[in-house]
Structure formats: C-alpha cells, structure tokens
C-alpha cells in the first residue's frame, strides 16, 4: 500500500486520462520488476503497520462490553453473508442463470411505471398498486396469462441451464428439487442395471 501511495501521483501526472483500475495495474507492474532489496523497505513498513493495527484493535476491543463484542460479531457475520451472496449472484449472472418469472403485478407495473402518478418510486408504486386493485378480473387476466407464460419460459430455461451446469461439473448450483430428481433418476438407473445383471446371471 505504501508503494502504491508513493507511485500513484507520478503515474497520474504522467497519464492524466488513466482509469483508476489501470493505475493499480501499472503500479503492480512496477512492483514486479523491483529487486528483493528494493521491495524490502516497503514490506517491513507493511509489517509494522499491520502490527500497529493489531495492537490498536486489541486496545479498542478491550474497552468494549461483552454485549458490544457480541453485536460486532453479529454484524461481521452479516457483512460476510452479504458479500458471499453478492459474489454468488455475480457468479450466477456470469453463468447465464435465467431470470426468475415475474408476477402478474410485476408485469403490469413494468408496462405502466413511466406514466404512473407520483414523483418518487414509492409514490409510483403506491399509485400502481391502487390501479391494479381497481382493474376488473378480465383486465387482470391478461397479465395473469403473461405471468403463466413467463413461468413456462423460466421452467424451460432453468432445465437447459441446470443440464449445462451438470455437464460442466457445477452440481453445487442446482436447486434442491433438481438434485433430488437427479438422485432419483440415478437410483432408478442403478436399480435397472442391477436387475439386468441378476437376470443375466439367472439365464
């Protein structure tokens, strides 16, 4: 980090239009070509900073009550779970997981959101909910049919996607119901194979 902070002004000055991610990439390239002797002062400084951070953290935590420590642990666990969920969502998106089916109201809302009454999103949502409730059954039926069609779309796309996940060895991404179905199918195939073997032995 010290090396980055030291080199960043010069890199930015030489390349005013450079993007932040490219700044780090360029400094990383500079770091890689340094000799062990040149890296040593920065590494030693980093170790000193880390040691100071640990001591400061211990001092801070020693002043907290058990309830505060417990609350910190809960918040840390929540942050980790949130980061894990975000990483999982990004991975599923990159793997092309189909979008979940929309409800009849969601379809209605997406079609009429722009012209909905209200200047804020919550206000528009409220006016759309009121409009939805005032629709006649035959008017709602149009959106309910679209929602049913979207369910079929989702079911078909998920079948293809999960088949592909099995092919590339990502069984961990399959839904529980799919895994149960896969295991039942595997058990039926195994039972059929055993039956054929037994019949062959008897003949």
UniProtKB/TrEMBL annotation:
Its main location: mitochondrion. Residues 1-61, 98-162 bind DNA. It is found in: Mitochondrion matrix, Mitochondrion nucleoid. Residues 1-61, 98-162 form the HMG box domain. Gene3D superfamilies: High mobility group box domain. Binds to the mitochondrial light strand promoter and functions in mitochondrial transcription regulation. Component of the mitochondrial transcription initiation complex, composed at least of TFB2M, TFAM and POLRMT that is required for basal transcription of mitochondrial DNA. In this complex, TFAM recruits POLRMT to a specific promoter whereas TFB2M induces structural changes in POLRMT to enable promoter opening and trapping of the DNA non-template strand. Required for accurate and efficient promoter recognition by the mitochondrial RNA polymerase. It comes from the Eukaryota. Monomer; binds DNA as a monomer. Homodimer. Component of the mitochondrial transcription initiation complex, composed at least of TFB2M, TFAM and POLRMT. In this complex TFAM recruits POLRMT to the promoter whereas TFB2M induces structural changes in POLRMT to enable promoter opening and trapping of the DNA non-template strand. Upon metabolic stress, forms a complex composed of FOXO3, SIRT3, TFAM and POLRMT. Interacts with TFB1M and TFB2M. Interacts with CLPX; this enhances DNA-binding. This is Transcription factor A, mitochondrial. GO terms for cellular component: mitochondrial nucleoid; nucleus. The keyword Chloroplast does not apply.
